[in-house]
Amino acid sequence: MFESLSERLSHTLRSISGNARLSEDNIKDTLREVRMALLEADVALPVVKSFVEQVRERAVGQEVSKALKPGQQFLKIVNETLTEVMGQEQAPLVLKGEPASVLMAGLQGAGKTTTLAKLARFLTEREKKKVLVVSVDVYRPAAMDQLQTLATEVGVDCFPALPTQKPAEIIEAAKKEARIKFYDVLLVDTAGRLHVDGEMMAEIQAIHAQLSPSETLFVVDAMTGQDAANTAKAFNEALPLTGVVLTKADGDARGGAALSVRQMTGQPIKFIGMGEKTDALEAFHPDRIASRILGMGDLMSLIEEAERTLDKDKAEKLAKKVKKGKGFDLEDFREQLQQMKKMGGMSSMLEKLPGMGQVAKLAEQQGPMKEMSKMEAIINSMTPWERQKPDLLSGSRKRRICQGSGTQLQDLNRLLKQHKQMQKMMKKMTNKGAIANMMRGMQGQLPPGMGGMGGGGFPPRF
User: Fold this and answer.
1) Are 338 and 403 found together in one domain?
2) SUPFAM superfamilies recorded for this chain (predicted)?
C-alpha cells in the first residue's frame, strides 16, 4: 500500500533541499507536486486542499533547524500533518458490556465476513478474549456457511443460524447464548448491498437499535479510493459509527482511502487488512503509516511483529550454539528462512526499515519469497549429515539434491554461498552488537540483483 504515493512524495521532497529557510517561493513548486501526488493517490479533493494549506501554514517562514536540512524539515512537517489527517493516535476497540458486542457494516464485496473472522482471531490471540460470531446475512447464499468455515479456521465459536430466520430473532438468540456461556465479545456480521439505499439503512438501523453495540465498525474496500470515504460518510450519517476497517489495503498502491476516511467521517480507522490470510489484520497507527508513506520506515510494527511471530526459545538456542563455536549449519539456515517467511518475507521486513522503501520494492520485483521457498526445498532434499556438513558435498550428492528439489546446480551453489556469508556474519556477532552486525550483514543476504547499498548502511534521504 502507498507505493505510488510514497515514491512520488519522496521524489518531490528532495527538490527542496539546499535552502537555509523555508519560504513561500521555494516550497511553492514542491506543494504543487504534493497536491498532484495526493490527487493521483485518489485522496478526496477537500482533504487535499486542507492538507496542502496546513503544510503551507506550518512551513512558510520556519527557520531550518541546525540538526535538519531544509528537505528534512519539510519532511517533518509533512509527516506531522499526514499523521493528524489520519487521526493522530491509534484508536483501540472499546469493549463494554457482558458480552461486548461489535456490529460490522458495509457494502457488498467489501470483505465484512473475512474481516470479522480476522477480528475474531485478533481478539482471541492478542487480547485473550472468548469470542462468539454470528451472521444475520439472510440474503447472500452460503453467507452463514462461509462464516462457520472461517470461525472453525480461526478457532472461535459460531452461533448457528438459518437463512429462514429473521435478523432480530437471530440476534436475540445469539445475545442470550453469549450471556449464558460467558463470552467476552459477540461479533455480528450483517448483510451488504451493492449501493447505499433506504431499505438497507432501515434494516441496519433496526439491527443496531436491538443490539446496542459498543462498537459499530464500517468495513470498506481500500481499492475504491475516495469513493470509500464518500460511502463511509453516507453510512456515518445513518449509523452512529465508532470506527472504520480498511480492507484489501495490500492491493491498493495509492492509499487515498486511508488519507480521506478520517477527515470525511470524523471516525478513526481502527484496523487495516493487509492480505487474505486470517492473521493479516493490523491495528491502524496513523504515525506509523505516515512514516511508511514517506519512506521513513516503521520499526515499532517490525518489532511487534517479531515479538509475535519469532520463536524466542529457538533464537536463544541458536545464539548459545553459535557462542559455543558449534557453527551455523544448513538446518539453522532453514530455520531462519522459515522465521522470515512468518514475518511476511524480505520485502515486508525491508519496507519497515528507514530508507529501505525502494529496496523493498526491488525485493518484491525479484520475488524473494519464491527464492526462499526454493532454498528451503533444496535444504529439505538433503540428508541430516549433508545439512551439517555442506562443505563436504560431492558432485553426485549435489546432483541428487537438485533432482530431489527440482532445482538447478547454480541454485544449490548460490544457496551454499549465501550460507557461507551468513556463517561468517554469525561468527562476528556478539551479544552486545548482534543487531548492528545483523543489519550490516543483511545486504549479503538479499536476493541476486539487490546489492549496491554501499557499506551496508541505509541510503541518505536528502
Assistant:
1) yes
2) P-loop containing nucleoside triphosphate hydrolases, Signal peptide-binding domain
